[in-house]
Amino acid sequence: MDENTTYQVLLNDEGQYSLWPAGKEVPAGWHPDGTRGTRQECMDHVDEVWTDMRPRSLRERMSAR
């Protein structure tokens, strides 16, 4: 992908994030979180919001102890 590609941030049910080229079909199990921009803008957003890299199911199991 080149510098002119617009990306979107995707989120899955486990609370994991991914960058995806805007305009491409979103893979099953993922949905846009509403953030679009350059790769760097999207990476900055993910760095800000994804503070715990553990999958949601693991976080829930660990907090139930």
UniProtKB/TrEMBL annotation:
Q: Name one GO cellular component term.
A: cytosol
What is one Gene Ontology biological process annotated in the Swiss-Prot or TrEMBL record?
Answer: siderophore biosynthetic process
Lineage start: Bacteria, Bacillati, Actinomycetota, Actinomycetes, Pseudonocardiales
Q: Which organism is it from?
A: Amycolatopsis pretoriensis
| Top-level lineage group | Bacteria
**Could you tell me which PANTHER family the record lists for this protein?**
ENTEROBACTIN BIOSYNTHESIS PROTEIN YBDZ
Listed Pfam families: MbtH
The MbtH-like domain, residue ranges: 2-48
Q: What is this protein called?
A: MbtH protein
Which InterPro entries does the record match to this protein?
MbtH-like_dom (IPR005153), MbtH-like_sf (IPR038020), MLP_fam (IPR037407)
